[in-house]
Write a structure and sequence with these properties.
Layout: H1 19-42, H2 46-60, E1 65-72, E2 77-84, E3 95-97, H3 103-110, E4 114-116, H4 129-133, E5 138-145, E6 150-158, H5 166-199, H6 203-241, H7 245-269, E7 276-278, H8 279-293, E8 299-304, E9 308-310, H9 311-331, E10 339-348, E11 351-357, H10 375-387, E12 392-396, E13 399-407
Parallel strand pairs: 8-10
Antiparallel strand pairs: 1-2, 1-6, 2-3, 4-5, 5-6, 7-9, 10-11, 11-13, 12-13
Helix pairs in contact: 1-2, 1-5, 1-6, 1-7, 2-5, 5-6, 6-7, 7-9, 8-9, 9-10
Length: 421
């Protein structure tokens, strides 16, 4: 799981941003959740699971600080096992009291998430010294728990003023749920390996272990889908409450995008291969779904190369194709009888070329994708950048044409990788 950004803007879109920024923010949160679900399926290193969770949660809440804490029952304390943004010596060493007088301890003991949007004025809890030393002004704490015992607490802290809300809690709790079951899966497999080495357990025990592994894998996927469903429901509720036609449409579009993420995730986890996926089969299924949901008279044709794609590349590619096709159906097919064509083919060594072309009236006069205020165009630009390519737009009497060359493998530079604190 990679994201070239190691830090995020200090102020989230809801702090001064408009509806488009808010929707893009929530969509990004759900994409991070889905990507982490795939990462958790492939990773058996607890430290890596914790570190990636803190990095992704910090990005998802536009914060500089996040930490994952493990509860130590013999000490009745938490130890900071992973984190981003903290001073040297914190991760792996810092201890925090686990009593109910602290927000972390209260969340752990009650199982309820805790939002503190003004720690200076907080009267419910004692503010830990670690937060004071880092100038933290607000925080969210959620419990990390699998199917069994509680592991600890996942906490995002922000040194800027603002407000975390219930949607942020849903995002954080979804991440904590994924982390909990992933840790439980890793601990179970580690115990199994040790047991097998000691006792040379028989085939029946191995089969039971594999069955349990499949259950845990399905549980991870189930929790990802639950998180996506929660956000989709929130968007639908906001749409029903809104009196603005434009906002209703924007919320409906955002809900459709979240639904697409859910479909992509469901398609990925059902395959036998977790790390890679067949481009032709995966994208063909997605296009068939889009075609069945469109006006029956519209035509969607596609041609995908028979190549294998890492799942980390498949998610943003699927979202990008969905956005491009949805825009084409909406704006470039005035009569409802036009054709939209999609192709992904090798362009040169290690590169694929995505092309989407319609038969509409072409791009608007003086169209500039880089300065467009459209949420759809912003998402297209963001997803293109995530894939490592630069989008190209052309327009003619034959319609609009989009092209993007991007690498098959995601290979960030060493200086772009997040640092462990």
């Amino acid at each position: 799981m990679h994201d070239n950004r190691t830090t995020a803007p200090a102020v989230a879109p809801e702090e001064g941003g408009g509806a488009a920024e808010e929707l893009a923010h929530r969509l990004r949160q759900q994409q991070l959740t889905a990507e982490y679900g795939h990462f958790a399926l492939r990773t058996l290193d607890t430290a890596a699971l914790l570190q990636e969770a803190t990095r992704a949660c910090a990005l998802g809440l536009h914060s500089e600080l996040c930490k994952a804490m493990e509860f130590l029952p013999e000490e009745q304390q938490f130890v900071v096992r992973a984190g981003v943004g903290w001073k040297p010596g914190v991760v792996g060493h810092a201890r925090l009291r686990a009593d109910a007088e602290s927000p972390t301890g209260y969340a752990f003991r009650t199982g309820e998430p805790v939002i503190s949007n003004d720690l200076e004025a907080e009267t419910r809890f004692r503010t830990p010294q670690l937060l004071l030393e880092h100038g933290v002004k607000r925080a969210i704490n959620v419990v990390v728990q699998g199917e069994g015992k509680r592991f600890g607490v996942l906490e995002v802290d922000s040194p800027t003023e603002g407000r975390f809300n219930e949607a942020d809690v849903a995002f954080m709790q979804g991440f904590a749920n994924l982390l909990g079951v992933a840790i439980e899966r890793q601990q179970f497999e580690a115990a199994l390996i040790a047991s097998e080495a000691r006792a040379q357990a028989g085939e029946a025990k191995l089969e039971r272990a594999l069955a349990h592994q499949e259950v845990l894998t399905r549980e991870i996927s189930h929790r990802v889908k639950n998180s996506l469903a929660i956000v989709g429901s929130l968007l639908a509720l906001q749409g029903r409450m809104s009196t603005s036609c434009d906002l209703k449409q924007a919320l409906a579009d955002a809900q459709a995008r979240v639904h697409t993420i859910a479909q992509v995730h469901d398609r990925l986890w059902r395959t036998d291969e977790v790390e890679t996926i067949s481009l032709a089969g995966f994208m063909g299924d997605l296009c068939d779904q889009m075609r069945s949901a469109a006006v029956p008279t519209l035509t969607l044709t596609y041609d995908f190369a028979a190549v294998t794609l890492p799942t980390d590349r498949a998610v943003p590619l699927a979202l990008l194709v969905n956005e491009l096709v949805t825009n084409a159906f909406k704006y470039a097919c005035p009569t409802g009888t036009e054709e939209v064509r999609i192709a992904v083919k090798p362009s040169s060594a290690g590169l694929l070329r995505l092309e989407v072309q319609d038969q509409g009236p072409g791009l608007p006069f003086a169209f500039d994708a880089q300065t467009s205020a459209s949420l759809g165009m912003k998402l297209i630009a963001s997803l293109s950048k995530q894939l490592g390519g630069r989008p190209e737009w052309r327009s003619s009497d034959a319609g609009a044409h989009f092209a993007l060359d991007f690498p098959i493998e995601d290979a960030p530079r060493e200086d772009e990788r997040p640092e462990s604190v």
